[in-house]
Design brief:
Elements: E1 2-6, E2 13-17, E3 22-26, H1 29-35, E4 40-45, E5 49-54, E6 59-63, E7 70-74, E8 80-81, E9 83-84, E10 91-94, E11 108-110
Parallel strand pairs: 3-11
Antiparallel strand pairs: 1-2, 2-5, 3-4, 4-10, 6-7, 7-8, 9-10
């Protein structure tokens, strides 16, 4: 199976050839800081091949010292991008960076012990099809 993806500004395009074995939603402190959200959503494969189609010169990699946390991103727009670890041969792909659909459902939530204190009952929060208009939102 081939999966294609890109960054937000479109400077970087990539292809992942192969199957994903797991799909984790990580709530650790590093992933929350990294994404600015409740969790990171990453697909993993030990056999897939990552190929940069264009924009490889814009890719930057940040390794958080004394941890296993790595972030690959576009230097132009900051979008998260895949990372292929040469030592472990593990390919990690941010799910939101893919342009092609994925059929694998999340394998699970991990590092729930360090999830954000506001990350509770999020499914009960109001849902909007787009950015809500101020007159549609009760902020009292």
């Amino acid at each position: 199976m081939n999966h294609k993806g890109s960054c937000l500004c479109g400077e970087v395009h990539f292809e992942v050839e192969g199957e994903f074995e797991s799909f984790f939603l990580c709530h650790c402190n590093h992933c929350r800081k990294d994404t600015g959200s409740a969790h990171a959503a990453n697909l993993f494969s030990s056999s897939a091949k990552l190929q940069w189609l264009n924009g490889e010169e814009y890719i930057r990699v940040f390794r958080l010292p004394s941890t296993r946390h790595v972030k690959s991103f576009c230097s132009q727009c900051g979008s998260a991008l895949p990372y292929a670890d040469k030592e472990t041969r593990l390919v990690a792909v941010p799910a939101g960076s893919l342009n092609s659909p994925i059929t694998l459902k999340p394998t699970g939530h991990i590092f729930m012990g360090s999830k954000a204190d506001w990350d509770k009952d999020l499914s009960k929060a109001p849902k909007f099809g787009s950015f809500p208009q101020e007159d549609n939102v009760d902020i009292s």
